[in-house]
Design brief:
about 800 residues, 5-stranded antiparallel beta sheet, 34 helices, DNA binding, DNA-binding, WYL_dom, XPB/Ssl2_N
Length: about 800
């Protein structure tokens, strides 16, 4: 709730200390207003019409909650102390609440001016040093109430706790406390409050307290301040109740008054003020060269895994769930294909999606598949492919670490689903990496140390609000997986990626640093006698693509091992290669001679390839060798095909050609498909692509931070609107408009005043009604008047505009001391 006293809706100050937040905002320079709008960008949506509107908007509940959420722990503690302090609060009183009577920690007093300045800069506190005021909405959010406890653990004041108490009960309390009797409840409450705030008298009162009563006060001291009592309380509780040290709040419930608690706390609002951020220590040192090499190796692995994922999905991409996202079964299958965990598989899929390399194809049976952008990405050098992935990860709001958890309706969050965006994710990732970048090269700290620092910079709203902590932990793990860190330390190329205001330039420089550390592609393999080929490094793309058809990957690591099998050789023959082509390819790309077992394997599969021909009947099977067909008919495994002989060399099947081909291959044969003309059909897996897609836009946590140009324009507009709303007009013969109304003058007076302003260069105040009927007040400096129009510099819009004279309702000169 905001009031006209707080927001300043009554106009400008007549001098002296500001009486409202709006008045204080008027005294701030443009740079300070721009800093406020930068720190609280929600105030710009839309741009306030004047400073009174800005003050009102800055005091709304939603905006204040956002501002409080972005305070560091000490600034928030200062705001919490102001919420339980008198309103207004002198700086000395606030200092006592933060440091206590003994002021044992000089750091608190040293940092207090910075915290107050932070609150003032963000328009959460206003007023002079002797009259600091926390905006009313922040006080309502932070002060103790029946709805919520104070973060300080303090309870209500004596005045608040005794509201509604009978005068007789108040009289008995002040008499038991040794205070002069009075029948005025207000005087009784004031006397009790003064007793609790007087350190010497309060110490004397507590000196006579039973030991059990002291123990009760100790339990309530730091909160929560509420307790329960029976209808017949024990003697030590009765002692506290009789003297007002425990005040009833309801049947069977009591509370420790704030003034009494502050005495017991030696004046401190918080048990442990935290004026400084926790140090990033202890630090573990690693050789920077080792860190850079380890991160580069993982970066290369990341490229390989993303390519493996999209290669698998380009031929048989998983179906999109009806509600969006990837099914659990498809996630498990993808994890098995990538030989990794389901959590890592979710990360790689989300990373490819964030980089614009993966999307749904939009077909009737919607599937995930690579985008056309994936082909462009494959053509880039390895270092540029990595920077593309890394910059996408830094910017995305996708959070794969949350996949599998339940939403508010109890449904599991699906990988690639619509509910995995979290607005704070990019900010948390960036901050985690920035903290690592603040350490010396090769240095790392524990995750707990980082979490403690992040919790100080942005305290969670509650003990259960751990989203930022979870995002930070996942950021650490994902940075290691992606190759930005190694052994918990930030690599040199990652430091470069984070540096500089221009992301494209930073990415180019990071790629240049990473390139020498990545393995160079090779153009050869080493063929082994055990039907394997060893690639001693990453292969050139044409070689890798052909070898992927001819052989199966058996293992990966520093070197990739491929294995040749009858099935893999047949796959190459199905793709249109001949035996001669395969012999020539292997001889041209192996540093070792082609082993005889491999040559025999190729020739044997080629000799049998195509002896059986499959066509469409539903399907048919033909072969010149009648014995082969008889063998197939006699085999039990062919029963599902329901084969029957049409001729000595032809069998008909009640199965589709693809099913017939797969079954025969499973039985150990090497059939080939043929066309209606009897020609062998070359079969290869089609690389499916989606229509052109753009990368998903991040879902921000709130309004974006405005740039300097927008801030400057907004400040000028607010200043001009405030000038129009608060400027003193010279008295004129025309009747003064009602509060908030437009000036009214005759057409002749309007024309004369505007023409005079052109000659003198003065600014005037006008009322204007646009073509849609919208009324507004403007401050303009007329430049010329002709043809029924006035051309003027509009201070409100900060630009030159032309106004039809017949739409100007009236005009008034501004006071000499205004412009």
């Amino acid at each position: 709730m905001t009031t006209s006293r707080e927001t300043g809706s009554t106009g400008g100050s007549t001098g002296g200390a500001p009486r409202t937040l709006a008045e204080e905002l008027r005294t701030r320079p443009d740079e300070a207003l721009a800093a406020l709008l930068r720190a609280r960008p929600d105030l710009l949506n839309p741009v306030p019409g004047d400073l009174t509107q800005l003050a009102t908007r800055a005091s709304t509940r939603a905006s204040v909650v956002r501002a409080l959420d972005r305070l560091d722990r000490f600034a928030l503690q200062v705001a919490e102390a102001l919420a339980v302090a008198p309103d207004p609060c002198p700086y000395t009183t606030l200092s006592g609440l933060m440091t206590g009577d003994e002021a044992s920690d000089p750091r608190v007093a040293a940092e207090l001016p910075r915290a107050v300045a932070t609150l003032r800069d963000q328009a959460l506190v206003w007023g002079g040093e002797d009259r600091l005021r926390l905006v009313r909405t922040a006080r309502e959010l932070l002060a103790p109430s029946a709805a919520h406890l104070s973060p300080t653990g303090l309870g209500p004041t004596v005045t608040e706790a005794t509201a509604g108490m009978s005068p007789g009960r108040l009289q008995r309390i002040i008499e038991a406390a040794g205070l002069p009797a009075t029948h005025d409840p207000v005087s009784a409450v004031a006397a009790l409050t003064a007793l609790f705030e007087d350190r010497s008298r309060m110490a004397a009162l507590l000196a006579g307290a039973p030991a059990e009563a002291q123990a009760v006060l100790g339990k309530l001291l730091w909160g929560p301040p509420h307790g329960t009592v029976t209808a017949e309380p024990a003697s030590h509780l009765r002692w506290l109740l009789d003297r007002g040290l425990l005040l009833p709040t309801g049947p069977g419930s009591v509370v420790l008054p704030r003034e009494a608690a502050l005495h017991l706390r030696a004046g401190r609002a918080h048990r442990c003020p935290e004026p400084l951020a926790p140090d990033l220590a202890p630090v573990t040192e690693h050789p920077s060269a080792t860190v850079d090499a380890g991160a580069a190796g993982q970066a290369f692995t990341a490229l390989s895994v993303v390519e493996d994922l999209l290669t698998d999905w380009e031929t048989a991409g998983p179906l999109v769930l009806r509600a969006g996202g990837l099914s659990v079964r498809d996630l498990k299958r993808t994890a098995a294909v990538l030989d990794t965990t389901e959590g890592d598989a979710a990360f790689w899929a989300e990373l490819a999606y964030a980089a614009g390399l993966l999307a749904s194809d939009g077909d009737v049976d919607e599937r995930y598949a690579p985008t056309p952008e994936y082909d462009d990405w494959l053509a880039l050098p390895a270092e540029r492919r990595w920077t593309r992935l890394a910059t996408a990860w830094l910017a995305t709001t996708r959070t794969p670490a949350l996949a599998g958890e339940k939403d508010a309706k109890g449904r599991a969050l699906a990988v690639l689903g619509p509910d995995l965006d979290r607005g704070p994710a990019p900010e948390v990732r960036r901050r985690v990496l920035d903290l690592l970048a603040s350490l010396p090269p090769g240095a790392s700290v524990s995750a707990d140390t980082l979490l403690a620092r992040l919790a100080w910079e942005r305290p969670p709203r509650s003990a259960t609000d751990d989203l930022r902590s979870r995002l930070a932990l996942s950021a650490l793990a994902e940075a290691e997986t992606l190759g930005l860190t190694s052994r918990g330390a930030l690599a040199a190329h990652a430091r470069t990626l984070l540096a500089g205001p221009d992301p494209d330039t930073a990415a180019a420089r990071a790629g240049a640093e990473l390139a020498p550390l990545l393995p160079r592609p090779v153009d050869h393999v080493l063929l082994q006698a055990d039907l394997t080929a060893v690639a001693p490094g990453p292969l050139l793309r044409p070689l890798a693509q052909t070898l992927a058809v001819l052989a199966d990957v058996e293992s990966k690591g520093g070197a990739t091992v491929y294995r040749f099998t009858p099935g893999s050789v047949r796959r190459a023959l199905d793709a249109g290669r001949t035996a001669a082509d395969l012999h020539a390819f292997l001889a041209g790309h192996s540093l070792t001679p082609v082993p005889q077992p491999l040559a025999y394997l190729i020739d044997d599969v080629a000799r049998r390839h195509g002896r059986l021909r499959v066509g469409a009947a539903s399907s048919y099977l033909r072969c010149d060798d009648e014995a082969v067909l008889a063998e197939i008919l006699a085999d039990r495994r062919s029963a599902p095909l329901r084969l029957r002989r049409l001729a000595s060399t032809v069998l008909a099947a009640q199965a589709a050609p693809d099913t017939l081909l797969e079954t025969l291959r499973a039985m150990g044969y090497a059939p080939a498909a043929e066309s209606a003309e009897g020609d062998v059909v070359i079969t290869r897996a089609d690389a499916h692509r989606t229509p052109p897609r753009t990368a998903p836009a991040p879902v921000p946590e709130g309004p974006p931070v405005p740039g300097d140009t927008l801030l400057g324009a907004a400040v000028r507009a607010v200043r001009a609107g405030d000038l129009a709303a608060t400027a003193h007009r010279k008295p004129s013969g025309a009747p003064a408009p009602a509060d908030g109304g437009l000036p009214r003058t005759t057409s002749a007076d309007t024309l004369a005043t505007v023409q005079a302003a052109v000659l003198t260069g003065a600014a005037v105040w006008i009322g204007y009604v646009n073509a849609e009927g919208g009324a507004s007040q403007r401050v303009i400096a007329p430049i010329r008047v002709e043809g029924g129009f006035v051309t003027a510099y509009d201070h409100t819009a900060d630009e030159v505009r032309t106004y039809p004279l017949h739409r100007i309702t009236g005009v008034a000169e501004l006071a000499d001391d205004v412009v």
